[in-house]
Amino acid sequence: MRPVRRFAILLLSTFGIATATFAVDPDRCNALLEGRTLTFVNGPVKIPTKYRVERGPRTSFDRIDTYDLQKMLGEHGNKIDAALYEDANTILFLSDGADVIDRLGPAIAQEFPKKTVVSAELDIVEDGFLNNWGLIRIDNTRPFPAKDDSFDRVILRRGMCVCHHGRCCAGFKPASPDARNFLRQVVRILNKKDPHALAVLHGMYDVGMGEIWAWSTFLDEIAKTEPIRYRMMMDRQGMFHSILIQPAPPRQ
After folding, report:
1. Which of 64, 128, 185, 249 could be bridged to 40 by S-S, CB 3.0 to 4.6 A?
2. Beta bridge partners of 93
3. Under DSSP, is residue 219 helix (H, G, I), strand (E, B) or coil?
4. What is the second-level CATH architecture of the domain 35-247?
């Protein structure tokens, strides 16, 4: 079997991506999460050095503010503050950018070589892995190719912005079934066994009270069956910044 075809079969089977030829196997974890190292078909890629990570103490879900999140995401010229990545073993960056220089995943993977970091994007040429960093194709309107409770951090930058003729940058209409299903997928893959697991769904532009109400309604619905809590984060001007989702603390 040709090496390229063998790699494609391994990738499709380990991530459980459904095709006409290969069936989804939910009991198999992807190669990266199992600790196996793969390389890109076309060889290694250069890890960008645009971002410099600054370490700090972990910030709690209840005390974090949008200034912390802006440093975490590298927004508004801030250097990346890795405090919210420090205690995570597996990290997923949704819609991490088709431009390799703009991605956060490689910078975090390089800073924390013992962590598993995955960048996901719809418009990529090929899936692949390099050491502890993976690049996979994800359509935010369809089920994610990852197992339940796979990631301690799920990060979406700018994806909740409503900038595409009434659609979010992540590809769905804010109050649509696709938006509800997207939030369900985020909750599904967030590691609800880790009380410090955290999802940050960011997007500051053109988000009004209608969108906030719809997302709150969806998350309230999800919270009836999943052990989660969430916060709608506002910036200092009172505008929407992001959604935080975390496993709910155990009841006393």
Report:
1. 128
2. 119, 155
3. helix
4. 3-Layer(aba) Sandwich (3.40)
Ranges of each domain in the chain: 35-247
Query: How many Cα atoms are found within 13 Å in the side-chain-facing hemisphere of 72?
Result: 25
Cβ–Cβ under 8 Å, residues 181 and 141: yes
pTM for the whole structure: 0.77
What number is the average pLDDT over the span 22-30? 33
Residue 77, phi-psi category: left (phi > 0), alpha (psi -120 to 50), beta (remainder): left
Q: Which residues contact 114 (CB under 8 A, 6 or more apart)?
A: 132
Report the DSSP pairing between strands 167-168 and 162-164: antiparallel
The Cα-based distances of 101 to 23, 119, 220 in angstroms read 34, 12, 37
Q: Comparing 5-9, 50-54, 77-81, which segment has the lowest mean pLDDT?
A: 5-9
> Pick the residue with more confidence: 44 or 191?
191
